[in-house]
Write a structure and sequence with these properties.
Blueprint: E1 20-21, H1 31-35, H2 46-60, E2 70-76, H3 79-90, E3 96-101, H4 104-116, E4 119-124, H5 133-142, E5 148-152, E6 154-155, E7 160-161, H6 164-172, E8 177-181, E9 200-204, E10 215-221, H7 222-227, H8 239-249, H9 258-274, H10 276-297, E11 313-317, H11 326-335, E12 338-339, E13 341-342, E14 350-354, H12 361-378, H13 387-393
The structure holds pyridoxal-5'-phosphate.
Length: 398
């Protein structure tokens, strides 16, 4: 790899020698974030309460809430716990949700609603085709009982950035409420309430803010938090109860992941120092552009046209060459210092490469070089995908 410049100091390789995680969270974190976990904190103590308050303020600062209409409620658990908490708390028991699915996470939200016994209508666009504003409008016009729309911001299973602007327009102009799963996008892709006055959204610690796993957070209109009282089916996933307790005592209701919160605060400070959402998004977009250009030079093809590519994660088709065997490619990439991600498409074979985490374009150039070497070692002469893959891609002509 002599011709590839090393990562700049700020994005030096993980100090303990583990591979970079080119995955959409958990992801590669800064040394300072890991170091912040070395202290123990008393969960009831004033110092930790101040940390919780800083965390909530820091997240609210990212949504452009000039009028102070929103509040932030951290919840223990992974992202799915927060999606479940949001749905169970904000959708009344007699509410009805229009779920927009184009991948695994939309379908998981639909499955969650089944557990919660909430009525729903599902628009399932398959592996990746985006739900469009006109479809949302038609579904809402056809069913006045629908109270909420659930949209996935970046559908991480394909990497598509869904058109939340047009979905919001169709939803809000019809007087319905918008819930957003922005798990993998929040902090790098703008989601300001000045642009889209959504009802509530969720994300988690180990995504674009670059913290470690252990909690997620719901940001919601205060009016929605107030109205959520009594809706939840679950004690521990009741967002209203968590919010009310935090407002009253400054504490989490049950044992908080103290070290994870300390790490997250460090990650939030580094997010601000980098320049906030715009700068974080620009770094990830550059990561994506450098990586995609390099992979295309090797002959790989992306599932999505540039217009739909998120700066979060990119799906590539597996090459048609029979010498390309994904587990072998994976192991070789890992041995060269990069953990990639299997694909989730059901129709054709694919894999994914993430662009988020503590890494920059120099790292991405090394990823491409590693892929080049892995192909050579495997004896793969062309990374071109099979014709079925290209036919599949034709479905998304927009
Ligand atoms: C869009 C989206 N929603 C939900 C989840 C689920 O989060 P978790 O795996 O932390 O439960 C993920 C995870 O990557 C995601 O990307």
């Amino acid at each position: 790899m002599a011709d590839i410049p090393p990562a700049s100091d700020a994005f030096a390789p993980p100090r303990l020698g583990e591979p970079y995680l080119l995955t959409p969270g958990p992801l590669t974190t800064a040394w300072e974030v890991k170091e912040a976990m070395l202290k123990d904190w008393g969960s009831w103590d004033a110092d930790f309460r101040a940390m919780t308050a800083e965390l909530r303020r820091g997240l609210l600062a990212l949504i452009g809430d000039d009028r102070g209409e929103y509040d932030c409620v951290p919840m223990q658990g992974s992202g799915s716990y927060c999606v479940e908490a949001m749905l169970g708390s904000f959708v009344p028991r007699d509410g009805k949700v229009l779920v927009l699915a184009n991948g695994a996470y939309g379908l998981r939200a639909s499955a969650t609603l089944k557990y919660l016994n909430r009525a729903q209508v599902l628009i399932d666009k398959g592996d990746y085709l985006p739900p469009r504003g006109a479809e949302v409008a038609a579904a809402l016009d056809a069913d006045p009982k629908i109270t909420h729309v659930l949209a996935i911001h970046c559908e991480t299973s394909s990497g598509i950035l869904n058109p939340v602007g047009e979905i919001a327009e169709a939803t809000l102009s019809r007087g319905r409420k918008l819930l957003i799963d922005s798990m993998s996008a929040f902090g790098a892709v703008p989601l300001e309430v000045r642009d889209i006055p959504w009802e509530a959204m969720v994300s988690s610690a180990n995504k674009c803010i670059e913290g470690v796993p252990g909690f997620g957070f719901v940001i919601a209109k205060k009016s929605a938090l107030e109205a959520a009282k009594g809706n939840s089916h679950s004690l521990s996933l009741d967002v209203h109860a968590q919010w009310a307790a935090m407002e009253k005592t400054g504490q989490w209701r049950f044992t908080p992941p103290t070290h994870v919160v300390a790490a997250f605060l460090q990650a939030l400070r580094m997010h601000a120092a980098e320049g906030g959402v715009a700068a974080r998004g620009a770094r990830y977009a550059r990561n994506r552009d450098v990586m995609v250009a390099g992979m295309r030079e090797l002959g790989f093809e992306t599932l999505l046209d540039d217009r739909w590519l998120s700066p979060i994660i990119v799906t590539f088709f597996c090459p048609a060459d029979p010498k390309f065997v994904f587990p072998d490619f994976y192991d070789r990439m890992k041995a060269k210092g990069f953990i990639i991600y299997p694909g989730k498409l059901t129709v054709v074979d694919s894999f994914r490469v993430g662009c988020i985490g503590r890494m920059d374009e120099h790292v991405m150039r090394r990823v491409v070089q590693a892929a080049r070497e892995a192909l050579t070692e495997m004896g793969v002469t062309s990374a071109a995908p099979p014709s079925e893959a290209l036919a599949e891609r034709q479905k998304l002509v927009a």
